[in-house]
Amino acid sequence: MSVFDVEIDGLRGGSADLGQYQGKAVLVVNVASKCGLTPQYSGLERLQERFAERGFTVLGVPCNQFMGQEPGTPDEIAEFCSTTYGVSFPLTEKVEVNGDDRHPLYRELVGTPDADGHTGDIRWNFEKFLIGPDGAVAARFAPQAEPESAEVVAAIEETLPT
Description:
Blueprint: E1 25-31, H1 40-51, E2 56-62, H2 74-85, H3 104-109, E3 128-131, E4 137-141, H4 150-159
Parallel strand pairs: 1-2
Antiparallel strand pairs: 1-3, 3-4
């Protein structure tokens, strides 16, 4: 099974159809609107703009598990992302990324280590997982890793479909 087989809804309902991303590189990020790391939306959007034509997308996954920093309704989240950061990349429904109710998408992701060897629970908002065109997790980045950091950009460039 790959992440492309996982069922998850879009932010405003209906399937997010992860299968549509087969053959592409996808940066999955658990996002929140009221977090100190929320300005990372700007860098994520710039990555989307920079690499979209080369078979890449950011996939934002809202989560309210970290100090209630994503309390909004789907419409509020969509409006905030659009008007504040000009987000054009897709957003899924709000999910839980840790605990007994961890969404199946995150069950597939959390076994992958980051550069420091961390596996398991998501540590905070804006933890990032790079998925390769084959659906395998290619890299994991800590929440504090800036989207446009050299390490993230290099990993994306290595993972883009040829």
